[in-house]
Design goal:
- This protein is of the alpha+beta class.
- It folds into four domains: 2-68, no CATH class; 91-179, Pdz3 Domain; 183-392, 2-enoyl-CoA Hydratase, Chain A, domain 1; 394-548, no CATH class.
- Helices cover 42% and strands 20% of the residues.
- It is built from 18 helices and 23 strands.
- The strands form seven sheets. The chain has a six-stranded mixed beta sheet, sandwiched between helices. Strands 1, 13, 14, 17 and 18 form a five-stranded antiparallel beta sheet that branches. A four-stranded antiparallel beta sheet has the order 6-5-7-8.
- The longest helix is centred in the C-terminal third of the chain and has 27 residues, at 496-522.
- The protein is globular and about 70 Å long.
Length: 548
């Protein structure tokens, strides 16, 4: 391990020297460092006591080097090209189903609407037993996924076990090219307020938002809620295309600035907009990042939209892919981006690391004030501040652990197997009887969790054992432990409302994936409620977008 770290540090040292030395010194130090690395590798390969894997050794050295930079600069080996392509383009050839591990079973977690898996009748929660006759139970998801993918127009047979059935089911599917949608849902929240949920920024995102907005306007929409929560971003070009829907042609959307002059560019709106007047709110969260922040930030800077929700992630870095030898690639941060007010919203300072190698957010003292087009104050260095802040729902650790345990997912599968599809999910709600059944079912599964109180009590008892007075403390300490256990036993009943809310959303997703889940949330989502309230009051909407 020590040798691996040395190799990474040597390459990192070469980069540092390159950054601060003169041109002549840089070339010498790079050549010197690479020569050292090469000879070190040869010596390790020849004389290390055990056999070493050359490929693994080199890739570990590369990873060691890249950890000195930011987390977005990444080495992509030839074997990882397909996964990287799917991530950046949203396209692949297969059956159109996302899979995952739930309670040690490989299950369908999202059969994409309109593609072979969903069309054939595969459902969320179906456990995959075999693919083309090969048993895949207990196999890694990457292996199962690989078997399901293949060339378009080829056949694959998937055998599944479904909740509520004793016999396995076989589905014969024809693979096809899959293009994952960027817009997961759109519809009317009220007769005149449109809602669009944008999850990705892969090629075509701008066109999808345009088509959704055009369709909703034809149905009577006069106001819009654009949901960018949990959207991690993607293509800068698609961000520009989406901003272009709401701003006149020729407006600056974003500029990039890097060490290499060719990366210094300004991106402007190139087309005629769809609607420059429609009242617009944008929902943001702590996971709204990158291209999502370009859209939200540019429209905020032009006082074109009201941002509602939480402070965004703060990723103001631009990545470019560079081709390497042997079909490998380097995804490298080449520039920072700046939105129209001139601010860069990058929140973490990767350039100035602490002595231990850790990084920190830019301190408030270094944040600078900027102005929107209409004179409102905005700041750089920490993501985007919403114009109207709405706190996200706060769930107890027990509820979070229940969700991650897979029990909510599993019960939703059982529920859907025994109940018909509801007529509508807009007001879907489980009965008290069904809610009690779920809580009792979870108890039967012997669900348990470790709370912080648990850990502290254990530490307290361990410390007390070392004291001479431990005998006197045994009874109160035991009583404390018993009360904590009793508290844990009742935690689901005390958090029943939150638990059932999450279960209802999971059931809706099992029935109709993104559409069902979105429709359940429309009637109970705090940020959507705030957006509706803001859009309903024309003067209040204008006041938010006006400088004091």
């Amino acid at each position: 391990m020590k040798h691996l770290k040395i190799s990474g540090l040597l390459i990192a040292l070469a980069l540092v020297v390159w950054a601060f030395a003169g041109p002549g010194e840089k070339y010498f130090e790079i050549a010197k460092s690479l020569d050292i690395f090469s000879t070190l590798f040869k010596e390790l390969n020849a004389y290390y006591v055990d056999e070493v894997d050359p490929k693994k050794l080199i890739e570990t050295g590369i990873e060691g080097m890249l950890t000195q930079l930011d987390p977005y600069t990444d080495y992509i080996s030839e074997e990882e090209q397909e996964s990287f392509s799917i991530l950046t383009t949203g396209q692949y050839a297969g059956v159109g189903a996302l899979i995952g591990i739930v309670n040690k079973k490989t299950v369908i977690t999202n059969p994409y609407t309109g593609f072979p898996a969903a069309q054939a009748g595969l459902r969320v929660g179906d456990e995959i037993i075999s693919v083309d006759g090969k048993n895949v139970q207990g196999k890694p998801t990457i292996e199962v996924s690989s078997l399901m993918k293949g060339k378009p127009k080829t056949e694959v047979v998937i055998e599944v076990k479904r909740a509520g059935t004793s016999e396995t089911l076989k589905f014969k599917l024809i693979r096809e090219k899959i293009k994952i949608a960027n817009v997961s849902y759109y519809g009317l929240v009220t007769p005149d307020v449109a809602y669009i949920k944008l999850d990705e920024f892969t090629p075509g995102a701008g066109k999808e938002v345009e088509e959704a907005l055009t369709s909703l306007k034809k149905k009577g929409a006069k106001k819009l809620i654009l949901d960018l929560r949990e959207n991690l971003g993607g293509s800068l070009y698609e961000a520009v295309n989406i901003v272009n829907l709401f701003l006149p042609k020729g407006k600056e959307v974003v500029s990039t600035k890097g060490k290499v002059e060719e990366w210094n560019k300004t991106y402007t709106t190139l087309n005629q907009p769809i609607d420059t007047q429609i009242p617009l709110t944008i929902l943001t969260s702590a996971s709204t990042a990158s291209a999502s922040e370009i859209v939200a930030g540019a429209l905020q800077d032009y006082d074109r939209a009201v941002l509602i929700g939480q402070k965004t992630f703060g990723k103001g870095l631009v990545q470019t892919t560079r081709q390497l030898a042997y079909n490998a690639q380097l995804k490298i941060t080449t520039a920072k981006y700046y939105i129209p007010s001139g601010r860069c919203i990058q929140a973490i300072d990767y350039e100035h690391r602490k002595a231990d190698g850790s990084v920190a957010r830019f301190p408030d003292s270094l944040k600078r004030e900027f102005k929107t087009h209409g004179g409102r104050k905005v700041f750089d260095g920490a993501g985007l501040d919403p114009d109207i802040k709405v706190e996200p729902p706060a769930y107890s650790p027990a509820v979070a652990e229940l969700v991650s345990s897979g029990l909510v997912f599993e019960y939703a599968s059982l529920y859907c197997a025994g109940h018909p599809l509801p007529e509508s999910f807009r007001n879907f709600k489980l009965s008290e009887l069904e809610a009690d059944r779920f809580v009792n079912w979870v108890a039967q599964q012997k669900f348990t969790y470790t709370s912080e109180l648990d850990q502290r009590a254990t530490e307290l008892i361990a410390a007390a054992r070392k004291e001479k007075t431990y005998d006197d403390l045994q009874i109160p300490l035991r009583d404390l432990k018993n009360k904590i256990e009793q508290n844990k036993a009742d935690v689901l009943k005390r958090n029943k409302e939150d638990v059932i809310r999450i279960l209802e959303e999971e059931i809706a997703f099992h029935y109709q994936t993104d559409k069902g889940q979105a429709e359940v949330r429309l009637s109970r989502d705090a940020e959507i409620h705030q957006a509706l309230k803001t859009l309903a009051d024309t003067q209040a909407y204008r006041n938010v977008l006006t400088a004091n």
